[in-house]
Amino acid sequence: MIVNKEVFELFTEQGTKRYSRVRKKDKIIYGKEKGKDSLLAFSSYLDPKFDTPWHIKEIASSLEKMEKRNSDMDRLIVNMPPRHGKSQLITRLFPAWYLGRNPSDNVIILSYSDSKAQRFGRWVRDCIESPNYNKVFPDLSVRSDLRAADEWETTKGGLVISAGLAGGVTGEGADLLIIDDPFKNLEQAVSPVIAEKIWDNYLMVAETRLSPKGIVVIVHTRWTRDDLTGRLLNESEDLVA
Hints:
By secondary structure, this protein is of the alpha/beta class. The chain has 10 helices and 7 strands. The chain has a 7-stranded mixed beta sheet with strand order 1-7-6-2-5-4-3, sandwiched between helices.
């Protein structure tokens, strides 16, 4: 079943009143047909509550460019307050979509603690095992013998590791590295000891475990000028923030 031209045009206006007129059935059809190529279509199909204000569209566009490796962008920093949809898009939906398109790649998801990172990893794993995901990417699934929240594999050889950044990451390399909230709160962010540990562990992963085609996405709320974003912006002029 094909989405007619008028409906397709309305999908280009996601987040507007015109878009709200699109029937649920057409949104589902659009997600199935365009989800392989469009992160927004995929996200709207897999998450019925997914919304697309302008900042989400901009982030999705950047993520698509990075995944396709058709631009010079291989690093992205997103700084926003809580409750703006950044983690749902970047740390949950994007790695699921990325693995559908790159099923043999390695993905590392880091956060301020093991448990926080594992919640992200578990969500991505469960998403890939869902019936709707299978309708977009029918050839990908999770190995039944290796599916722990902190480390699991796809049937195509891809690997997802989820860990706390403060503890460091050893072992496998990454084609996609996502860091979501390296600091739990202001207390951690203003601690020189913790800040230095986060920085050292970031360098260890980003500098030694990325593949030649590796991309990095960092998303967190700013706390201090010396947090991870602050240090990275002082180190490089090539980052997009």
